[in-house]
Amino acid sequence: MTNSARHIPVMLNEVLAALAPKNNEIYVDATFGNGGYSEAILNAAQCKVIAIDRDPSVKTRADELKKLYGNRFEFRAGAFGEMADIIDIPVNGVVFDIGVSSMQLDDDFRGFSFSKEAPLDMRMSMSGLSAKDIVNQYSEAELADLIYLYGEERRSRQIAQKIVEYRTKKPIETTTELAQIIYQIMPKHSGQIDPATRTFQALRIAVNDELKQLERGLEGALSCTKPEGRIVVVDFHSLEDRIAKNFFSENSDKKVHVSRYKQSETESIVSDKLLAFVSKVIMPTENEIRINPRSRSAKLRYAIKRKEL
Fold this sequence. Notes:
disordered N terminus
């Protein structure tokens, strides 16, 4: 089985509908991963895709697409938060798939999943501060704040206290070791979300600076898209979704009901907002959730830039 078959792009049909690829246009896949969105966009129209990813392990897959699509596909290494520097030409659309990819979760050595024994790493770029560094070096207060802020974990202080207590005996080195510490505070129960989920989420977000990356990435996308260009965001939890929702809201006009009798008075008003349209949140279908359980928490939002200011 190929990587493409194993890793199903989330909400692919909805992403393509929102992005609306057209011939001779240029699109950015800001989170290349296993290339599912990039390949689908390239197949949807005779367009070009510029893909971005900071994970060096995706190079093999990027090389595959380069061989298949030639000059229509280009890969640029880097984090999407650096989009303003990476993308040096105007483009017609940008798509983001925020968070850890299925490919990273399935890699036993990356340390993203608490269900597999692995070094406590979680670095998408495979460089810099790791989750192991954080759990062994941060103070109890810093750990508690991080787990609460990024994981929205109500028992963050108890978890932080238990982590600090444990590491006085030995360093915390593996994913399962950390998970077992958390289970001392919140035991696992069949049929319920694993108690380690929120803490692992918090560490992953902190290690990869994901929220700041998203904020900078959206700003970069807005600056590099042409008039009538589209920005599409697929995210998987409330912190990311709040950033996308607020960003789109802040850059578009508030919807105000105006009487049709006063329409002539308002026609001359020119907005200084960059976005002409912002979608409502779009959720995956029940059928997709059944086929691809990873999609169950996904949310899609997209926006369209104004024709001209």
